[in-house]
Recover the amino acids of this structure.
């Protein structure tokens, strides 16, 4: 069954790639298909027909791409339920990180800071509640304030290291 699924997914990917390249080829090299003659608005009508064709190709390839991603995610959930390792979503995450770079996780940075700098004997329920409140407020901040907040934490951490 897995072999048939692999063939089907390969077929879908190939058709998707062919549609994308044929759409681009048609827009660039077959402009006469979109020319409208004997019309007072022939230039505008030609541009509109090109835009409509572009939308048609874009919608078809977007739908196929979204179906591919959703199918991969569903396949991963089946793998996970059967006790196997997920394949597709980790691959997509790795590809995303290689293209756009590693994202920074502010929660992870804050938790690491707390683990490194707060002595275990001072951690009690009151401190834990205040950390939870800080995290809630942190999630409500704008990206600029979040970055400023993290920079302030780093400065305080350096000051604490210099004093100690």
């Amino acid at each position: 069954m897995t072999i048939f699924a692999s063939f089907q997914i390969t077929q879908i990917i190939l058709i998707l790639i062919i549609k994308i390249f044929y759409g681009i080829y048609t827009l660039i090299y077959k402009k006469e298909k979109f020319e409208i003659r004997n019309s007072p608005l022939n230039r505008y009508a030609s541009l509109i027909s090109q835009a409509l064709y572009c939308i048609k190709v874009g919608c078809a390839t977007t739908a196929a791409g979204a179906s591919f991603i959703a199918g991969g995610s569903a396949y991963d959930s089946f793998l996970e339920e059967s006790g196997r390792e997920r394949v597709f979503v980790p691959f997509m995450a790795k590809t995303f990180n290689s293209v756009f770079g590693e994202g920074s996780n502010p929660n992870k940075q804050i938790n690491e800071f707390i683990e490194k700098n707060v002595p275990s004997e001072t951690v009690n329920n009151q401190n834990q509640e205040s950390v939870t409140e800080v995290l809630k407020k942190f999630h409500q901040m704008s990206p600029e304030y979040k970055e400023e907040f993290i920079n302030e934490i780093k400065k305080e951490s350096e000051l604490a290291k210099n004093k100690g």
Notes: The mean pLDDT is 75. The chain has six helices and no strands.
